[in-house]
Design a protein that fits this description.
Elements lengths: L9 H8 L11 H9 L2 E4 L33 H9 L4 E9 L2 E10 L7 H30 L19 H8 L3 E6 L2 E5 L6 H14 L5 E3 L2 H4 L14 E6 L7 E6 L20
Antiparallel strand pairs: 1-2, 2-3, 4-5, 4-8, 6-7, 7-8
Amino acid sequence: MQVEVPKLPKWVLIYRTKGLHFPASDIPAQARALYAINKVRLLYDREQTTARLVCNTREDLETPLDLTHSYLRAMSPIHLKYLGHMGVRASMSISLTAFDQLWGLVSCHSYSPMRVSFPIRKMCRLIGETASRNIERLSYARRLHARKLVNTVPTEQNPGGYIVASSDDLLKLFDADCGVLSIRDETKLLGKSGENSQEALAMLEYLRIRNFTAITTSQDIVRDFPDLKYKPGFNVIAGLLLVPLSSEGRDFIVFFRQPQVSVSGPWVWGWCLSAVF
């Protein structure tokens, strides 16, 4: 049975992709390695017929030609089909690399054939390299700042005193929306809890009962903790990161994230939405 997927207007496609998160698994390992080497890739026209490579002799066929650094290298048929379902005719990508790995992509799409001159491509490569260096610099600065956040000598008067950072610092460090610090009988809500507070406190009681002694993460608390019972349901908190602060698991700090819309798989055949921590 063949199902026809109706083509959506261009403005609908742009609107529906805005603000979504595309997981790294959408890019195969082989393609990621290629993007890390070839920093700028260009497709003039998706519908243009590709050219055949002609060898001088039959012996040349025994050694495949390496087109890793070629601007004229054809795109994967799967990628062309992917672009076709979005109505994209031309594309250009600029790789962002950090610590010798692919960190991200700047992806440019055109709904009609478009050529990009060599000087513009060189400028885009320079922009990508500059952004990549800044990403590494900011990452190093964040690591140095993180070392100042924790003082390992607590006091009896203030058992949570070794957390010397403000709530905003801690939440920014772990990219969380809110959190809870639980030490002995002392509880501190981190961040602007607002509508999160009741769900955060409900999770706090559950985590105290479970007594986790190892770092625990969840991208979907309802799925990962089936014994978690909360009548109103969790509508604001979706994922968590728990870090024990004592060997018995009595003391801990937990960070929460709100649901985020992510796209995975061949989304052009249908949206696959999930909450990601």
